[in-house]
Design the sequence.
């Protein structure tokens, strides 16, 4: 039992944190709100650092790492409200392609995947492709990151059950849908399923869709951790500076206890997210090799899925509580456009509902606890 | 390593570099710990599984408990004289086979295993529905302090008797006017006329096990001149000493969980001073730390309660599906709270194993476990509905008793209000009032 | 629109409050915990004051008043944790008998009810009969006030739907069941339904059972208001006296806000309970005559039932919150047998679940809002 | 009466009496008010129904609104110049038929109806989904103060123009360093050189409608020597006066709900002092009282929102029953919170009608309505799920905008933290810190 990140992982987080502190300031963020885009100079920088290609096999120009390696970086992305689709591209799309390419178990010494997949993986690692990934549910629902995406991974109902399709931007017509947070780049995707675009059917498609939903839950939860930490930090800073009744408002117990409550929620959300990332990696043949090989049992898969839901439920609640408390502590100033707080509030609200709300995941957890009945 | 890493950032931010060879990026170095010039377990990949040795330890513990744990509920209440002795006997039985203090060194009756093994033992202990630990105050609160501040003589004198429950300890912290404000302690100690020790005078209260314990550990003011936190000394006191009077305090459930202890010129020899005269506050804080930290409440306790809650919910799904549906969300949340506590404990344990320590996180911990305990029991009573008041009923009693006990959680070991102050001031850097 | 109690009602409350302040101290309460009983000298005093017979027609020795008149008195009963079955006898049993006796609409100039009913009503008013009333649901459930009751009003499943039976103690075997609060005098009632005991079947039985449940919800809510007020008051008193860190703990914002939160819940529970009592009286032909006559429409009945559930849900939450907060403010002392707080905590916990928990009633409210679908 | 009643208690407690004739017990006297020697409505039996006259008033209001209310959502936002004028026109239209200030005396443009009729009008207004009231600050916050403290001249001068929205008012309370701590006001007023009035200097902020309003009411320090609450004066200031600068403050939703106002030696004539020099604090508290009390937030506002929430839930039951089930409890609670607010308002209104007043209950009120507003909108967004972020969508926008506005509820008009202090200190008698 060793439940901690490695020095490498911590160094990587620190490096990315320092880069984002410079490249993703709230000024950058405000600019992105004005003209959101998928691939930016910042995206290129992240690609150069190896962040974008983290889950792409080494043979295809990536780092061949897993969700445990990615989660700390997603936390940092959340902390700065990173506008680019790191979650969709690196946490979701690339692993789907890797799985399809049958690189499982030997990810670091990849045999040739089929040509198209290889090219796409290489392009992702090089920062040349940003993805949007569809969630299970109504095909008509707006897609995060769709507006400006190069690559689409889309589930669709097929003749014999669910199917998974992969298309490039040329084959998908996107009509933008406005979100409270413009950097979400929501869009409605209109496209024609075809034998060429179909990459999986039946059981394989179902498992890809399920695993993608679990990875999305954990990756989104990781971003929410960073967002919560940022909002609590902003409120604490403000509470130290702002004076009323002749002292810093942070010295009032009411303010202390508001922030302490949010901090405790965050403290306990973190290990839940890290543990879920580890559990998912254990059930991912493409990554499990990294850790001492573990046979992926059905039981382990169910437990991993439950861990993913626990992580998302906890992180969603922690982030919405941090948002509520941070706004209350800021008072009227936090309600202004000038104050940076709203940039993070809006993203936190959007992500807390994305890929399943806290309540949605709590009911998933309970069903899996009482088992099929 | 860090330097190299910073260097990379400089380059990559000031003018982005192309995807150079992997080794430009230290975090892409896939060599194993063994192969790399680096610290001990520090760089082991994340892994939540237990080692084969640890699993073997679990198997051994499970087997022993299966063979020895008395029928659940068969022991009389810990808070009765009879029950106290029954629980003492159980501790003796555990001690005989070295299960009472697994994490202690063998010379004191333990097995010298690590914190992970202790957590595993706790999981098995709660899963087996074994009796409450009557030695808890000594084993979990005093022992860590003895190991840290005690002389060899003190360790030899007190630890083995504690491990075998030959001597059971109670805690003498709070006073009628010093609860949340522990530094407000008034009980005092003055040098004895023959200068062979100290004479203790004053009143302590809320001493769990106080009604029956043989020994008491507590703080007394040895320097009346010094202000608040200074001038306090940590004493180990034999309850049988002349001048000690105990008044049991019946609690909300009618039982006597704790007691008031009155001291009147109680002579305590110098060798029963722990950690030095006038240094009591620092010594005590170490205990308070462990009380709120890892050692007091093991995750297994809540994990087991959550498991029983889910079972209760499953039964309710059959008996009264509509009621079950109304509380489904709370059941899930309570289970997740226990699970998050388990994961957070493993996270903290790893930090400790890697040489880190438990700071103000101990306060966050205390808030979380006390609220989790309440959430689990409140939800169980909600599922029981009108039955919840039937304290004589077998299925209800454990939940109702557990709820009454959980209600004290936000109060003892430092109220949650005090803990929130600590979190705000020490984790978030907010100014003291 | 005049939403207030009359001077008469306030005077009655005040009179009862003063009597109970003397006759139902916490010493009396501790004695009652030791040997709970249904009819006591205190019960006689309440009968003399007209409290016990409040809902009994004047012609039968009562005051012929309604739930609006009774609610303030039940609040006072709750404030002192009155051990006697005022709720079961005066709020539930008597109105059932009145309804059966066909005294509706002319309650104050009662024509002859059948002999048995008249005698029972007179006996109740004179303080000679204490009742226990069964709730809908499993017949096997323990009955509040059963241990020591003289009169039983019991619903039972019949050949053609629900039935209502009225029996006296001789015809019912009661085995006591212990409650966290001994003054609840819970008991399992074993009895034989017979044509003699049967007083209502079919629609009439159903409506009696439904109205009784609504009245019970409001009457219990009223007692919970008194309990909440008592517990908050005890905590506020303690917070003024108890000093830590050199000042009264009540001067700490954390303590202030705990109590303020509970107080706000209580403030808004009160009108909900009073309004529900008025609504039920409006739909009760035996009482409606008191107010300008109102035709009891089905709509009004549904609204009254919803008001009753709103009242119970609100009062249950207010009382459990007051209990939690009061115990937290008292700290360890509140956890002791010596401190009077537990006498009220236990009753509040029991009553918050009795006749439907807050969650039970919330779902009733929602169903009635969305209507049959 | 009370005496007689006390007498009864004496008797009945000291030695219980038998069930004597009803008249020994005053509360059994069934004579009607008319028949008894007693106060006015004070003794009318409880009755939550409205009188025929009140129902007729409702019918008239409903008819007028049905005929005049613009298509819901058809007016541009209140916080744009265009929308501001559109809303001003709507106020004019209401005023023309005497619906803009129903509770004012007829001479000032009202109908002289009572508080109950005002509540009825509000019910109809919200049910009709009529536009937001651009005159709100003046009508609900300043007017009550003008009626209480204003001279006849001031009433004649300001009330009719307020009723017709010819002059729209904004509030000049807060300053950058005086928010929760209102007494920390620094803006000052000194006598003008020609002694014909006051010269105002300073900065006010969070002035709703400040970007477009013609007039502003606010507090300025006229006696720099006096401490905190003293030496403040309540001024009525024309925004067009030389020396007034306005800086709109864009808010979280990008619109400019409020503004900063800078005053530089702004000359204000003596007749624009309200309630006397240096008496501003007491005058202002009257307004603050009405702001938190009855007049600012009518129950109809939340009743209508709750009605729409239940409709949304009904739709969700069809679209996504599982999601609906997960939030059923919250929907019911939100509806009940609105209903409890309605009943509490009727309760308070009756007390006021019977000659009572609104004290610290106003603080409890503010806490309740602000939390109710949040609960209603939070629950609606939960029912909308992933759609909740789609602020461009017709079904979503009102809920999302409403949520953003509700978020400010616990902050403005005195933060809920301050209100809880008031409840604890003035309703429960806890000591000030």
Sequence:
């Amino acid at each position: 039992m060793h439940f901690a990140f490695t020095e490498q992982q911590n160094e990587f987080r620190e490096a990315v944190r320092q880069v984002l502190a410079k490249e993703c300031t709230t000024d950058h963020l405000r600019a992105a709100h004005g003209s959101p885009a998928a691939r930016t100079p910042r995206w290129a920088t992240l690609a150069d650092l190896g962040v974008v290609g983290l889950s792409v096999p080494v043979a295809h120009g990536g780092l061949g790492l897993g969700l445990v390696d990615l989660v700390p970086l997603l936390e940092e992305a959340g902390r700065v409200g990173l506008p680019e689709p790191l979650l969709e591209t690196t946490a979701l799309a690339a692993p789907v392609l890797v799985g399809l390419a049958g690189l499982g178990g030997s990810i670091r010494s990849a045999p040739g995947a089929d040509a198209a997949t290889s090219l796409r993986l290489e392009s992702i690692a090089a920062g040349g492709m940003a993805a949007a990934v569809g969630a299970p549910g109504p095909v008509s629902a707006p897609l995060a990151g769709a507006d400006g995406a190069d690559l689409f991974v889309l589930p669709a109902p097929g003749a014999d059950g669910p199917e998974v399709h992969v298309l490039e931007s040329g084959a998908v017509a996107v009509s933008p849908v406005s979100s409270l947070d413009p950097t979400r780049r929501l869009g409605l995707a209109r496209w024609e399923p075809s034998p060429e675009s179909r990459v999986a059917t039946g059981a394989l498609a179902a498992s890809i869709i399920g695993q993608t939903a679990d990875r999305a839950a954990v990756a989104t939860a990781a971003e929410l951790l960073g967002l919560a930490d940022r909002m609590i930090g902003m409120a604490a800073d403000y509470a130290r500076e702002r004076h009323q009744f002749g002292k810093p408002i942070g010295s009032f117990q009411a303010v202390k206890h508001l922030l302490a409550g949010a901090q405790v929620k965050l403290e306990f959300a973190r290990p839940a997210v890290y543990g879920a990332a580890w559990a998912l990696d254990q059930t991912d043949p493409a990554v499990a090799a990294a850790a001492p090989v573990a046979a992926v049992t059905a039981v382990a898969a169910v437990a991993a899925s439950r861990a993913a839901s626990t992580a998302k439920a906890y992180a969603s609640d922690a982030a919405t509580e941090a948002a509520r408390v941070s706004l209350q502590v800021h008072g009227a100033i936090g309600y202004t456009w000038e104050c940076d707080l709203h940039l993070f509030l809006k993203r936190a609200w959007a992500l807390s509902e994305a890929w399943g709300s806290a309540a949605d995941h709590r009911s998933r957890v309970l069903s899996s606890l009482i088992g099929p009945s | 390593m860090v330097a190299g890493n910073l260097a990379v950032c400089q380059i990559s931010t000031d003018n982005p570099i192309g995807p150079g060879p992997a080794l430009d990026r230290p975090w892409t170095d896939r060599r194993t710990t063994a192969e790399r010039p680096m610290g001990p377990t520090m760089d082991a990949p994340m892994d939540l599984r237990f080692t084969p040795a640890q699993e073997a330890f679990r198997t051994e513990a499970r087997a022993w408990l299966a063979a020895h744990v008395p029928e659940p509920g068969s022991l009389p209440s810990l808070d009765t004289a009879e029950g106290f002795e029954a629980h003492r006997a159980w501790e003796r039985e555990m001690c005989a086979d070295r299960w009472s203090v697994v994490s202690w060194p063998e010379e004191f009756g333990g097995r010298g295993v690590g914190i992970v093994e202790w957590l595993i033992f706790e999981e098995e202990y709660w899963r087996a529905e074994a009796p409450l630990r009557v030695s808890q105050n000594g084993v979990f609160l005093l022992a860590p302090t003895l190991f840290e501040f005690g002389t060899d003589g003190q360790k030899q004198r007190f630890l083995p008797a504690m491990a075998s429950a030959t001597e059971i300890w109670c805690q003498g912290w709070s006073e009628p006017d010093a609860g949340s404000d522990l530094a407000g302690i008034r009980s005092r100690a003055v040098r004895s006329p023959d200068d062979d020790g100290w004479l203790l005078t004053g009143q302590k209260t809320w001493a769990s096990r106080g009604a029956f314990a043989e020994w008491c550990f507590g703080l007394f003011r040895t320097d009346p001149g010094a202000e608040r936190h200074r001038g306090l000394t940590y004493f180990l006191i034999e309850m049988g000493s002349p001048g000690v009077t105990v008044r049991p305090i019946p609690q909300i459930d009618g039982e006597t969980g704790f007691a008031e202890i009155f001291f009147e010129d109680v002579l305590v020899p110098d060798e029963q001073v722990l950690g030095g005269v006038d240094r009591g506050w620092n010594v005590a804080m170490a205990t308070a730390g462990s009380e709120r930290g890892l050692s007091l409440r093991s995750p297994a306790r809540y994990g087991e309660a959550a498991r029983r809650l889910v079972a209760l919910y499953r039964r309710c799904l059959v008996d009264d599906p509509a009621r079950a549906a109304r509380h489904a969300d709370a059941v899930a949340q309570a289970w997740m709270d226990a699970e998050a506590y388990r994961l957070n404990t493993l996270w903290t344990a790893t930090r400790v194993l890697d040489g880190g320590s438990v700071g103000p996180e101990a306060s966050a911990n205390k808030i979380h476990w006390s609220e989790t305990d309440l959430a689990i029991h409140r939800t169980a009573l909600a599922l029981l509905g009108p039955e919840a008041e039937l304290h004589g009923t077998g299925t209800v009693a454990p939940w109702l008793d557990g709820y009454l006990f959980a209600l004290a959680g936000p109060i003892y070991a430092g109220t949650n209000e005090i803990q929130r102050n600590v979190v705000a001031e020490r984790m978030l850097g907010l100014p003291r009032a």
Chain C touches chain D through 76 residues (CB under 8 Å). Residues 9 and 69 of chain C are 6 Å apart (CA to CA).
